[in-house]
Amino acid sequence: MITPNMHYANLKDSYLFYNIAQKTKAYLEANPDKYLYRMGIGDVSLPLPAAVIQALHDAVNDQSAKDHFHGYMPECGAPFLRETIAGYYRERGVQISADEVFVSSGASDELGDILDLFDSRSSALVIEPAYPAYVDANVMAGRKILHLPCGQENAFLPAPQEDVKADILYICSPNNPTGAVFSRSQLQDWVDFANKNGSVILFDAAYEAFIEDPALPHSIFELDGAQTCAIEICSLSKTAGFTGTRLGYTVVPKALCRSGMHFHEMWVRNRTTKTNGVSYIIQKGGAAVFTPEGQRQIRANIAIYKKNAKVLMDALDELGIWYCGGKNAPYIWMQCPDGMGSWEFFDYLLREIQVVGTPGEGFGACGEGYFRFSTFGSPEDTKEAARRIAGLLRKKGL
Ligand code: PLP
Predict the structure, then answer these.
(1) Which residues pair with 323 in a beta bridge?
(2) What separation in Å is there between the alpha carbon of 66 and the centre of ligand 1?
(3) Is the CB of 112 under 6 A from ligand 1?
């Protein structure tokens, strides 16, 4: 009789998006004439930029001609894309070599796969509220998980604590769901803490492109000492609309070493064993994101999402409601009014004004009492949702 991975039995059911879907479905069945303003979505609504589409078409044409055809790609990524991404880091003053960049099919895949590099007896620290995959991927591997809850007292940006140490430290900045971004000095504290304790930081930079404040770090490698304690996981999903096209990259520095083992060498070995690389066509499309034209076009798209954020923030400012995020991130994390619970507030918005958001409780217990709005919807829907929220909560006497 085989023994399955029994750790799967320890996974908690993920009710968040299932419950949202069930509640909205039930509402629409009971109110078929109503239109819903969906401010909960984590997917983009704008199409791929023109420069990417052109590059994808050109790459398809390459595949039609014997002289230009590409078969298997190098497992760790095409040299042209690895060079391009290393150049993107150099523009920000970060020196990493092209072979420290690993092209991937997206951050989700990497957040799961990278755990192959760590012993199952190692522990993982998750700052909560958090993107749910961090906890689940470690539960599947049977790792011990330490939860570091945070809240308004530290603006959802906690400092490391001497009595909460772990081998793997997850840091997501800009954060999903809170939209909060670690400052340089706050992130430096985490880097110093990791180096001192021999931990490894898994830095999720999926939303770095949304940072507009020049003082905030886009990459953990902007901090001193990060190359000896961090792996950075990035994605073009939200940066450039690749959620359905799938492309990301991971930086594993050669200087990262624990117990005589070099993580860069281990990751090369892992990738060359477990993948056959990302498709040539998609990598060509990805390279176009980093051209001057591609950068102009993705900035224009991000500006549209940022305008959505501004509309929502203006409404919350006017109501005097506490929130964080929005300015340097595509998410706004607000405190539910009148001490409402996050599912209670969800039901209230759905019932009264047909606005759908995401209850904070779904991102960890300390998210209870908070609510996440995404800014990836259409400007028209966002404006109307903000108008309705302002009207409803004003009427409520806030
Ligand atoms: N990390 C965070 C914090 C995310 O919010 C997401 C997607 O929503 C991902 C990673 C996954 O990104 P990808 O589409 O590249 O798999």
Answers:
(1) 334
(2) 36
(3) no
Structural domains present in the chain: 6-48+294-395 (3.90.1150.10), 50-290 (3.40.640.10)
Residue linked to tokens 């390279």: 287
User: How far, in Å, is the centroid of ligand 1 from the Cα of 391?
Assistant: 33
Query: Looking at ligand 1, which residue's alpha carbon is closest to its atom 2?
Result: 206
Nearest CA to ligand 1 atom 8: 42
* Cα 244 to chain centroid, rounded: 15
206 lines ligand 1 (CB under 6 A): yes
Distance 107 CA to ligand 1 centre (A): 5
Residue 312 φ then ψ, to 5°? -70, -40
Listed in sequence order, the DSSP H helices in 207-341 are 237-240, 263-274, 280-289, 292-319
Residues composing the chain: 398
Query: 110: CA distance to ligand 1 center in Å?
Result: 10
62 forms beta bridges with none
Could you tell me what percent of the chain has a pLDDT over 90?
96
> How many Cβ atoms from other residues are within 10 Å of residue 183's Cβ?
14
Is-contact 137 5, C-beta < 8 A? no
pTM above 0.85, yes or no: yes
pLDDT digits (tens, 9 = 90+) for 77-102: 999 999 999 999 999 999 999 999 99
**Residue 229 and residue 204: Cα distance in Å, rounded?**
14
Distance from Cα 142 to the centre of ligand 1, integer Å: 22
